[in-house]
Design brief:
Layout (H helix, E strand, L loop, with lengths): L1 H16 L6 E7 L4 E7 L11 E8 L5 E4 L8 E7 L7 E8 L4 E7 L5 E4 L1
Antiparallel strand pairs: 1-2, 1-8, 2-5, 3-4, 3-6, 6-7
């Protein structure tokens, strides 16, 4: 029984060692195009079908999230997604991204008059 417990602990630790959120995430919003751009640095292995940004959740204040699902990461180092999203001045947009191996990164941006950038 003790060996089984030790084995399970080792498996849990080793699987979470590969889980990591993006190193960096930048959000920008273009009022004219009504587009949120999510730029991330997320370094993955050579097999981008197994390790990738799996989901991007976008929500305003306390609204229901709009979820974008992915099955692979196109580039081994970065992910840039332009997401159509209607927002107005003063709105706060919250973004949560999920790595397929388990890491999570969060960021938010407050929409002023024109295009802005927020780095987290």
């Amino acid at each position: 029984m003790k060996k089984l417990f030790i084995f399970l602990v080792i498996m849990l630790i080793s699987s979470s060692a590969f889980a990591h959120p993006p190193i960096e995430m930048t959000l920008s919003y273009d009022m004219k195009l009504k587009t949120l751009t999510v730029s991330m640095i997320h370094v993955v292995s050579t097999n981008r079908n197994q390790h990738y940004i799996k989901e991007i959740w976008v929500t305003e204040e306390e609204g229901d999230p709009v979820v974008f699902n992915y099955r692979r990461q196109q580039k081994p180092r970065e992910v840039i997604e332009a997401i159509p999203f209607d927002a107005k001045e003063g709105d706060t947009i919250f973004v949560k991204v999920y790595c397929s191996k388990g890491g999570i990164k969060k960021a938010s941006i407050v929409i002023p008059e024109n295009k802005v950038e927020s780095k987290e």
